[in-house]
Amino acid sequence: MLEVGFSMERLVDESATAAVAAALFLVGCARGAVNTPAAEAGQAQPQPSVGMEEEAVDDGVGAVAAQVAAGRDHTCAMASDGSIECWGNNVHGQTRAPGHSYVQVTAGLLHSCAMDEEGEVQCWGFSGDGRVNPPRGVTFSAISSGDDHNCGIASDGAAACWGNDDEGESNAPEGAFKQLSAGGNHSCGIDASDNVLCWGDNGHEEVMPPEGKFTRVVAGGDHSCALDAEGKATCWGSDKHGQSAAPQGPFVDLSAGARHTCGRRAAGSVSCWGAGTAGQKGFPHFGQAAPPADSFVHVSAGDGHTCGMTGEGYVECWGSDAGGRATPTFTFASADAVAAEEPDEDEEVAADARRGKRMIAPKRSSKRGGMLPDIDTSVRGR
Question: How many whole angstroms separate alpha carbon 46 and alpha carbon 352?
């Protein structure tokens, strides 16, 4: 959502990611960001947001990373076969993913969306403001979900948004875009000249980007961040919780949540800033900006939680677990898991500790989900 969608795109240090080929992917935060193929040439590789793709990663163990999208109080993940599973609050049906094969998934405030290979978009969850009704007759190359609106890059490169437009967040400017990200009540994109354009609510100057050339932009609750070709993160808008005070890079990917931001470095480590950093207590601090010391190929910042995907295909979430948003509960598992006999408790714990090999039986009490199965190494997304 708010990375998640919000969504993302990136720089890749191949020597540091020999075991993991990170790819372009739309995510974003609850607001997802996205890059189109035209944006890939000669640029830093971006991550989850509209116009982004993410390459599935094969670690040689039969499990690879697909996609994960954190919304407000729910999360969705996409497996290598294109199937989607969501968990968390389902009061509006936002976790009831349709049974279809997709190439991208995004999560908003109370809804979710996914795009298939043909560029067709399907959304589910709360239907207010038309947020689950993508424009008819339009095919997309990438999509991004914000709080209560969505934006996508149409097949001709134009931006098309739908859902709430009270602040003009769905009134995208004309022209071709390489990447888009839908945030709280605003949206941002990178045009054909690598400039950042934003539109919608400007209560905290979140739609007033700095001058310069950028490779990726993400829209959060009431702030925005962008990456330049050197991997430097620049943020603007509200900084009430430090969400716009980006640390030194370089980063290869960004995801903006409601009140926090996360960046992924080439080696896979994640740094987050804003609400929920270590030691902060009380609302809105839930630990969403205190990531584990693990290596990730993708990260998605939501409202009060954040989720990341490891090169082995595990989903890990941290922060608020209200409604079960940070506790992955996959029903799919790795091929090894399906073939294995039910282990005793010691075996299950040992398998979990190995983390890179297999998840024999995903533990529902853990904030680490089961492996996503059978992901090939082809680029997913359009």
Answer: 30
pLDDT of residue 368: 56
Task: Note the pLDDT of residue 279.
Answer: 85
Tell me if 68 sits within 8 A of 372, measured CB to CB: no
Q: Quick one: average pLDDT of 252-263?
A: 98
Query: What are 355's two structure tokens?
Result: 């983390």
DSSP string, 48-95: SSET--EE----SSSB---EEEE-SSEEEEE-TTS-EEEEE--TTSTT
Q: What is the pLDDT of residues 71-108, one digit of tens each?
A: 999 999 998 889 999 999 999 999 999 989 999 999 99
CATH class of the domain comprising 5-335+367-380: mainly beta
Q: What's the pLDDT at 367?
A: 55
- Residue whose C-alpha is closest to residue 64's, from 74, 56, 76, 72: 56
Alpha helices by DSSP H, listed for 91-246, are: none
In whole angstroms, give the CA distance from residue 248 to residue 243. Answer: 14
How far is the C-alpha of 326 from the C-alpha of 110, rounded, in Å? 16
Each residue of 143-173: b (16+ CB within 10 Å) or e?
bbbbbbbbbbbbeebebbbbbbbebbbbebe
Contact (CB, 8 A) for 61 and 76: no
pLDDT at 41: 29
- Rounded to whole angstroms, how far apart are CA atoms 76 and 87? 6
* Contact yes or no for 346/380 (Cβ under 8 A): no
- Return d(Cα 262, Cα 258) in angstroms, integer: 11
pTM of the model: 0.76
Contact assessment for residue 80 and residue 373, using Cβ atoms and an 8 Å cutoff: yes
Cα separation, 15 vs 345, in Å, equals 38
Q: Residues 149, 31: contact at Cβ < 8 Å?
A: no
CB contact at 8 A, 27 and 52: yes
**In the block, which residue shows the tokens 């073939």?**
339
**What digits encode the pLDDT tens for the residues 291-336?**
999 999 999 999 999 999 998 888 999 999 999 999 997 654 443 3
